[in-house]
Amino acid sequence: MEPSDEVGRADGPAGERILVVDDDPFIARLLEIELSASGYSVRVAHDGEQALQIAREVSPDLVLCDVMMPNMDGFELTRRLRQDARTSSVSIIMLTARGLSSDKLEGFSIGADDYIVKPFDTPELLARIRGVLRRSKEMRAQSPLTGLPGNVRIEEEIEARVRDERNFAILYADLDNFKAFNDHYGFMRGDQVIQFTSRVLQEVALEIAGDDAFVGHVGGDDFVVVCGMEQGVPTAERIVERFDAEAPALYDPEERARGFIEVENRRGEVQRFPLVSISIGIASTERRRYSHHAEAVAIATEMKGFTKLQAPETSSWAIDRRTS
């Protein structure tokens, strides 16, 4: 069965999108009606594979999934959602007819946010959904433009690795010549550059660093990638390669061909700016340890500034090789 069209009021409780996953058409339709009536924007999938496809396309705020489904059960769906950089931060509530403690423990251990036993009443379900979504917003402070975790989650992710004494690398990235692009083409085209950068970082992080990668949006044109220590440099190299190959397509053909844009400054003078590029600073645990997340971020930011000075008109990266 094809997934339903998006329904419900776009101006619901907080504009949240919910993906309902249940192989029982009656239950799926009932949930769709109840959630839509409560103001949520709802999509429906009837198996795990379909749910994965929709989740990657629309980035739901919450997935409400049945545990007992053929081919791919709710546990495997949750694992796959958590492993994919595009869906790793989505909230998940599992529904099941079995109230066994072992099932609940497994659900929580693989990343479910809540667990509801059937049959349930609608007011309880809606209350649990509101609670999970509220906690999710507070924890992730998600960027509305990219959907990536914001500063709160970035700090938590780095601090957890520092606390656990894990080897890691932090890539602090920002764009060069972005303001000129924004001034020349306008904010809507500027937002497309930010979203393009977000996509490149997520796809490369998943490709090189796999499930261990974390991508966050600090704000504006600043991003952070956290990954394994050994994947730091290969990830930066691949980001630079992908960015330089694909970013020219963001420009109009004439300006793409000549390799620069012309922008008038406040004094009425016309200035030339190269095409937008990306600079990445890397801090890792290869030669030093960190006692706090801010210390690691400060080193990565310093290296980002260094590579900007060394290669101001091209994408580049630099890694800190100093010892503690």
Compute the number of structural domains.
2
Number of strands: 12
CATH architecture of the largest domain: 2-Layer Sandwich
CATH class placement of the largest domain: Alpha Beta
Main beta-sheet strand count, sense and barrel state: 5 strands, parallel
Poorly predicted residue ranges = 1-12
Count of helical regions: 11
Give the radius of gyration: 22 Å
Largest sheet, spatial ordering of strands: 2-1-3-4-5
Question: What order do the helices and strands follow?
Answer: EHEHEHEHEHHEHHEEHHEEEHE
Helix content: 40-55%
Overall mean pLDDT score? 88
* Strand content range: 15-25%
CATH fold-level name of the largest domain: Alpha-Beta Plaits
Note the overall shape: globular
Derived from helix and strand composition plus strand pairing, the structural class reads alpha/beta
Describe the oligomeric state of these chains in a short phrase: single chain
Assigned CATH superfamily of the largest domain: Reverse transcriptase/Diguanylate cyclase domain
Distance between the termini: 59 Å
